[in-house]
Amino acid sequence: MPEYRYQAQDSKGKIVKGKADAFDEADLQKRFHDSGLLLLEAKPIIKQMALKPLKKPRLADFCRQLGTLIKAGVVLIKAIEIIANDESITDYERQLYLRLRDRIVQGVSLSTVMEELEPAFPPLLIFMIRAAETSGTLDTTCLRLAEQYTSEAQLEQTAKNSLTYPKILSALIVVVVAILFGYVLPQFEDIFATLPELPLPTRILMSISDFVANKWYVLAVVIVLAIIFGKMIVKIPAVRMLIDRIKVMGKWGKLTKIIYSGRFARTMSSLYSAGIPIHSCIEIAKSTIGNKYIEAQFVEVEKKVAGGMPLSAALVEVDGFVQKLPATIKVGEETGMLGNMLESVANDLDFYSKQALLKLTSYIEPVMIVVMAVVVGFIMVSIIYPIYQSYQTIGAGS
Q1: Residue 102 and residue 346: Cα distance in Å, rounded?
Q2: Which of 76, 145, 185, 190 could staple 209 via S-S, CB 3.0–4.6 A?
C-alpha cells in the first residue's frame, strides 16, 4: 500500500502533518473525512532503493507467475501482491514488486512503472508488456516471456557448466606450479649451488623461484593492478569493439555466430509476434545480441529497412550472423509468416547454440591441458637437465 505525506486541517483550524498508508489519494481523502479532518495536500512518498537488473531466472519466474495469475482471473494489483509475498524471493525483489503495486494503485500502467524502475526490468520486457496492455493479451505475453527467459537462462547455465572443467584445470595449474616453486625447487638449491654452471632454463627458473619466494607481495600487487587495469581497458569502446570483432573471426567465430544469431532471432520473434513495429523490433533486438561489433552494423540495417529494403536483405551483409538467419527470414517475408519463421529459426539456433557451447569447451580443454603440460614439463626439464649434465661430467672424469 502506498505511503503518503499529508497536510490536513482539523475542526479548530489546526494544521496536522504526518504520514499515512492508503490505496490512493481518494481513499486517503475519505478516511480523513470520516475522522473529521480536511485533507489539504497529499504527496506519495517514493522510497529510494538501489536498482539493479533482475537475473533471467528471476524474470522468468516473475513473468510465469504473473501470466498464470492473470489468466486465472486475478486482478493485476492482487497478482503482483501475491508474487511479492512469495517466501522464496529476495528482499530486493519484494521491495521492487511492492513498488510496482504501489505505483499501479496510483493509476500508472505496469509498463510505465517498469520503465521508471530501469534497469531492474529490461527493455524487451517493457516493450512486450506495453504492447500486451494495448492488445489485452497480458497473460499470454507474460507466459511467452517466461518461456523466453527460461530458455536464455538455461543457455547461460549451459555456458557456465561448460566452463567448469576449464576453471578446475586452471586452478590445478596454479596449485601445481605453486607446489613446484614453493616446495620442490628449494630442495634442489643446495645441489645446484655445487654445479659450476647452470643451463639457461634452470637459471630462469631459479630466478623466478627466488622472486616468488622473496618478493611475492610485488607479484600480488602486479596481479591486482593487472586485473583492475584489464577491466578498465576492456570498457574502452574501441577495445571492446576489437574484442567483439575477434569473437566472430575464424573457426571460433563460426560457433559464436550461432549464439548471437539465436539471441537476435528469439528476441525478434517475441517482439514481432506481439505486434510491435519492425523498426522498434530491430532497435530492441540488436541490444540483446551482446556484441558491440555486430550492434554497430545495425545502423546501416535500420537505414535500409527504413528505406523499404526487406529485413532479410539488410541482414545478409551483417558480419556476425549465420546465413541461415536471413535465409529463413526471407522465406517468412515471402510467405507472410515472418513471426512463425522467426520462432522456428530461434528454436533451431537455440539447439545449435548449446551444441556450439559444448564445442567451444572441447576446444578450451585440450588447450588448458597443453598449457599445463608445457609449464610442468619446462620446470621438470629445468631441474633434471643440470643434474643429468653433472652426472655426465662425473662419468667422463672417471
Answers
A1: 37
A2: 185
